[in-house]
Amino acid sequence: MKNILFFGDSLTAGYGLPAAASFPALVQQKIDAAQLPYKVLNYGVSGDTTAGGRARLAAALARQPADVFVLALGANDGIRSVPIPDTSANLQAILEAVREALPAAQLVVAGLEFPFNVSPLGNHRLVRYAGEFKAVFRPLAQQFGAAFVPFLLEGVLGHRDLNLADGVHPNAAGQQILADNVWAVLGPLLAQRAPSAG
């Protein structure tokens, strides 16, 4: 049995929902249905930033070996307007540390976009920040040869019926879409990596 480590924040943890409703748990259901030999480990911590993730990474890697590492951090950086270079440097440091500790692991990076509803007369500083934030993730994935989920919250962000009352965290139906977004990339990878029977 191989391990998939999901390393993220409240989106990964399934904030406000039973653990079984989080998207990593739903990915486990898809893995089981496909009869693939993988076990999902959910290392989502609500409120975590990329700096927080960087600080706790070593402890997470020491607990469990991982054959696949899914990085899904950055949303809280955006909410707190953390400078883009800091977010990028933290994500890069996380990927470097995983590559060093687990050289054979498949890396997966989940892209994020920041939810600014900006009109043409809106705040141009926020528009620029949103554009720079979105642009952080794909180059990092390319740099480390990671598979790339273009936008973790695709189809969920801004949909009131798919989020909790706070409008920020996906509800159970929203988490299912997150699982689908991740599985579209992860599923083929796992099938490719699984040892053939016989």
UniProtKB/TrEMBL annotation:
Pfam families listed in its UniProt record: Lipase_GDSL_2
> What are the GO MF terms of this UniProt record?
phosphatidylcholine lysophospholipase activity
Record-annotated SGNH hydrolase-type esterase domain positions: 6-177
Q: Name one GO biological process term.
A: lipid metabolic process
Q: What is this protein called?
A: Arylesterase
Organism of origin is Hymenobacter coccineus
